[in-house]
Amino acid sequence: IASGSDDCSVSVWSTSTGERLAGPFVGHSLGVRFVAFSPGGEQVASCDWHNIHIWDSYSAELAIPPIAGTEYAFSLVWTPDGKEIVAGCGGNIRVFSVSTGAQLAQWSAHTKTIRSIAISRDGRYITSGSLDSTVKLWDAVSHRQIGPPLEHGGAVFSVAISSDVEYIASAGGDGVVRLWSL
Questions:
Q1: If exposure means fewest CB atoms within 10 Å of the residue's CB, which of 45, 63, 90, 108 is most exposed?
Q2: CATH (domain of 88)
Q3: Which residues lie in coiled coils (predicted)?
C-alpha cells in the first residue's frame, strides 16, 4: 500500500505486516493529495497542489525531476501501459510522459477543480469527477467528451471505471454512490 501525508511525504507499506517497506519519500513542499502505483508496481506517482513526483517504489528516489506547474493537482492515474500519467489539475486534464515529465496533452474538462480521475483497463476511456457536481467521460485518444455530463447531487470526490468497462461509479458530497452505464 502507498500512502501520502500532509507532512509532505509518501510511504510504501506491507499489507501483511503493516511495516513500512520504503520511505518516507521526501520532496513535496505541500501535503500529498494522491498516490498511485504504476501498473507493474515499480514506481509510485504522487501529487500535491503544485507538483507531481514519480518515485522508484523500492529506493524512494525520484525517477525524474518533479513535474512542476501542475496547479491544483488532486488526482492522477497511470495509463495501462505505464508510459503516461493522466492528472486532474484544476478544471483541466493533463497528460504527462513518465520518462521525461513532458506534457503531452491538456484540455479544459470542468468548470471547477477535478477531484478524481480514472482510466479504463483497456486505456480507451478517461472519466473525471469535479467540484462542479459532474462526471464526464472522455475518449483517451481524441480527448473528446463522450455524451453529456453526468449530473451528481453535489461535488464529486471519487470516480472509477469497472474492470469490464461497463460502468462508471461516482461518489461525492451528497452522500450518494451512483453507478452509470458506460
A1: 108
A2: 2.130.10.10
A3: none
**One domain for residues 47 and 136:** no
* Residue (of 88, 71, 74) closest to 33 by Cα position: 74
Distance of CA 140 to the CA centre of its chain: 14
Residues 38 and 17 in one domain: yes
Reading the block at residue 17, the C-alpha cell is: 505486516
Beta partners for residue 68, in sequence order:
51
pLDDT tens string, the chain, 182 residues long: the values are 999 999 999 999 999 999 999 989 999 999 999 999 999 999 999 999 899 999 999 898 999 999 988 888 999 999 999 999 999 999 999 999 999 999 999 999 999 999 999 999 999 999 999 999 999 999 999 999 999 999 998 999 999 999 999 999 999 999 999 999 98
Residue 114 lies in a domain: no
Paired strand residues for 47:
34, 52
Q: Which residue range(s) make up the domain with 135?
A: 121-181
